[in-house]
Design brief:
- By secondary structure, this protein is an alpha+beta fold.
- It has a domain of 133 residues: Nucleoside diphosphate kinase-like domain (Alpha-Beta Plaits), CATH 3.30.70.
- It has ten helices and four strands.
- Helix 4 crosses helix 5.
- The protein is globular, with a radius of gyration of 18 Å.
- The chain starts with 9 loop residues before the first strand and ends in a 9-residue tail after the last helix.
- The structure holds adenosine-5'-triphosphate and magnesium ion.
- Adenosine-5'-triphosphate (ATP) binds next to helix 4, helix 5, helix 8 and strand 4.
Length: 203
């Protein structure tokens, strides 16, 4: 079973309050499950503001990245962003996000498998629903835009949070789950996904 890519890779996924309210928990789980990833932890909680703040403070680069991404999205559509300062922009987004993610139950999960972080992000689709491709979860089930969300001082309703790097995933998983809540088990499907030899199929 030699394979260069890390099949133990784990990523944190959250079905945000809009996904729960729209009865999409099962659909979201189905999408990750059917691609071959393994669900190794799951819980439904109403997050405290303290936990939410920790979650959205995991990456010190986040304000610059998200602020820049949002400003560029405005400009790509020929719109004028509410501010040219990415940090100022992102701090507003973070406040709105904290209000959003603490507004009701969410479902937190850990998914494991080869390149789990990238695979989950691909299936999830890009952050802004207006720009996310059909076939992705956000493309298929959401309709929001940055400009609509920002005008109403709320977070973009895009159903899911998913870790974006190994470092972010490791930190986020530790925030939401204790070690003993993350299960270590074998799925029989992993043999067909990863084994070098498919012996044992024919009788
Ligand atoms: P997530 O971290 O939720 O998986 P992401 O990594 O695609 O999504 P980030 O840039 O980390 O996106 O932003 C986190 C969340 O903040 C987004 O999922 C979205 O709900 C919200 N958000 C981001 N930019 C904006 C914006 N310009 N206006 C409103 N909400 C925003
Ligand atoms: Mg993110």
């Amino acid at each position: 079973m030699n394979n260069y890519d890390n099949r133990q890779e784990k990523t944190l996924v959250i079905v945000k309050p809009d996904g729960v309210q729209r009865s999409l928990i099962g659909e979201v789980i189905k999408r990750y499950e059917q691609c071959g990833l393994k669900l190794v932890a799951l819980k439904m909680v109403i997050p405290s503001r303290e936990l939410a703040l920790k979650h959205y403070s995991v990456d010190p680069e986040w304000p610059l990245k998200t602020g820049t991404k949002s400003i560029e999205a405005y400009k790509a559509k020929g719109l004028i962003p509410p501010t040219e300062d990415p940090i100022e922009f992102a701090e507003k987004v973070r406040k709105n996000l904290l209000d959003f993610i603490t507004s009701g139950p969410i479902v937190a999960m850990v998914w494991q498998g080869m390149n789990a972080i990238g695979i989950v992000r691909k299936i999830t689709g890009s952050t802004e629903p207006l720009a996310s491709n059909p076939g992705t979860i956000r493309g298929d089930y959401t309709i929001d835009s940055y400009s609509a969300a920002d005008a109403d001082s709320r977070a973009v309703r895009n159903i899911i949070h998913a870790s974006s790097s190994v470092e972010e995933a490791n930190k986020e998983i530790k925030l939401w789950f204790s070690e003993k809540e993350i299960l270590n088990y074998r799925l029989v499907a992993e043999e067909i996904l990863y084994d070098a030899n498919l012996d044992g199929i024919l009788e």
